[in-house]
Amino acid sequence: MGSGQWSVEKRSSLRSDSFSKDIDDVPETGCLSIIVLGASGDLAKKKTFPALFNLYRQGFLPAEEVHIFGYARTKISDEELRNRIRGFLVDNKAASSKYSDDVLKFLELIKYVSGSYDTEDGFRRLDKEISEHEISKNSHEGSSRRLFYLALPPSVYPSVCKMIRNCCMNKSDLGGWTRIVVEKPFGRDLESAEKLSTQIGELFDEPQIYRIDHYLGKELVQNLLVLRFANRFFLPLWNRDNIHNVQIVFREDFGTDGRGGYFDEYGIIRDIIQNHLLQVFCLVAMEKPVSLKPEHIRDEKVKVLQSVLPITDEEVVLGQYEGYRDDPTVPDNSNTPTFATMVLRIHNERWEGVPFILKAGKALNSRKAEIRVQFKDVPGDIFKCKKQGRNEFVIRLQPSEAMYMKLTVKQPGLDMSTVQSELDLSYRQRYQGVVIPEAYERLILDTIRGDQQHFVRRDELKAAWEIFTPMLHRIDDGEFKPIPYQPGSRGPVEADELLEKAGYVQTHGYIWIPPTL
């Protein structure tokens, strides 16, 4: 380019329809068809259909404009599918009797179509059923809305997406749309994820693709942006000058529970850390977006992922609980980790030198998911209370949703002694009677509304896999071995040693107890 000349580059086409135009620009007047592919499977039964029922019960899916279609290879009738999912729609018996009429009316909205995932015959029948529903609702061709939820293994995504593209799309655009929701895992490494993205991307535009990560639908995860950017006192504190380390933790107190064969194919890093914990990491570490438009938020998430330095072996501990290989579906020589602790480091102005510790494991001594932000020591400690522990801001994602600030206060009494206590916002106590929606409810509703804020964009997915792929390949090749640990323990002792090496200071003698009503 010659001096004095300017060039204008066309920006990437990775745009959400909610970003490029206001959602209300084109009125959505047509009926809505929700198609659950893999309708006879566990995910659909336990998560997708219950989420759809709760949206229906709350008035977000009016019976006069919505119909639900199940599609799978299993040859069953409409009534058999309804009977399969009936018992999963409501949590407990008391609520079941309360919502019995709603359950019956909801089940009447469901129709089942049987067919394979790689031939057109079944999808032609599915399209015929959808079209008949649209005609019965007096929807003009092209104004109807079609949402395809792929509750399926990723191996069949390409063939299913091809069948949807060839057989089940809207015929024109008069305010209608076709969108697809795909579940994790999105590939096994960078190469497979990019291949899958390319295969789907050749059939659908990015604004039509909703890569769902249910952690992005959790109440306190969605609260992170509000906490960080709507509260003045966090703004000057949220950086390397004040924060010593950040932990993002996922712990389960049970093993693979019959899913050993599936889990062994992926392991704890692919199953939990590369997606769920990394999404939380992005929201904790990202810069303030220009606005709340989905693309502005996702742009900032990509930037922070691209700032992560390569993970070093010295800052990774892998574990496998004893007894894991006793599962008949798990190979005797499995090298798959059921536990991992690792340190991510961000090379930017805000976070240089701050360790982000991601930790996930199965068969541990407790069940919880939380974010723990530990602040630096107070300089010039005149109270000599450093040994009691540092200030911490903890966000408990599950169970017992809460956020609390751990701080040092004066012990009540005549002596000038200090003790650790907390400022506590426990949701169960503060928001009594408020039902916190399930993550899948929020995300399905976002999909219907065309809001991609809480979904993973293609370049974001690529940046995430770039962080973990080199390490995963070494684990797959047997070069990186997990350390055995006892079920019901904290995990390998080496993981605690890594935390200490990273600078985390554990508080002794203080335990947060969720308040009772």
Structure description:
This protein is of the alpha/beta class. The protein has 2 domains: 32-183, NAD(P)-binding Rossmann-like Domain (Rossmann fold, 3-Layer(aba) Sandwich); 216-436 and 458-502, Dihydrodipicolinate Reductase, domain 2 (2-Layer Sandwich). The protein contains 16 helices and 16 strands. It has helices spanning 17-20, 42-57, 78-86, 93-98, 100-107, 120-136, 157-167, 190-201, 219-222, 224-229, 260-285, 294-306, 427-430, 439-449, 458-476, 493-502; strands at residues 32-37, 66-72, 110-114, 145-150, 177-183, 209-212, 243-251, 316-321, 339-345, 355-361, 368-375, 392-398, 402-410, 418-426, 455-456, 483-485. The strands form 2 sheets. Strands 14-13-12-11-7-10-9-8-16 form a 9-stranded mixed sheet, with helices on both faces. The chain has a 7-stranded mixed sheet with strand order 3-2-1-4-5-6-15, sandwiched between helices. The termini are far apart. Mean pLDDT is 86; it is low at 1-25.
Provide the CATH architecture of the largest domain.
Answer: 2-Layer Sandwich
On the 0-100 scale, what is the average pLDDT? 86
Q: How many β strands by DSSP?
A: 16
Strand order of the largest sheet: 14-13-12-11-7-10-9-8-16
Task: Give the overall shape, derived from the CA principal axes.
Answer: globular
Share of residues in strands: 15-25%
Main sheet record: 9 strands, mixed
Question: How are the elements arranged and paired?
Answer:
Elements (H helix, E strand, L loop, with lengths): L16 H4 L11 E6 L4 H16 L8 E7 L5 H9 L6 H6 L1 H8 L2 E5 L5 H17 L8 E6 L6 H11 L9 E7 L6 H12 L7 E4 L6 H4 L1 H6 L13 E9 L8 H26 L8 H13 L9 E6 L17 E7 L9 E7 L6 E8 L16 E7 L3 E9 L7 E9 H4 L8 H11 L5 E2 L1 H19 L6 E3 L7 H10 L15
Parallel strand pairs: 1-2, 1-4, 2-3, 4-5, 5-6, 7-10, 8-16
Antiparallel strand pairs: 6-15, 7-11, 8-9, 9-10, 11-12, 12-13, 13-14
GO molecular function: glucose-6-phosphate dehydrogenase activity; NADP binding
Protein name: Glucose-6-phosphate 1-dehydrogenase
Pfam families: G6PD_C (PF02781), G6PD_N (PF00479)
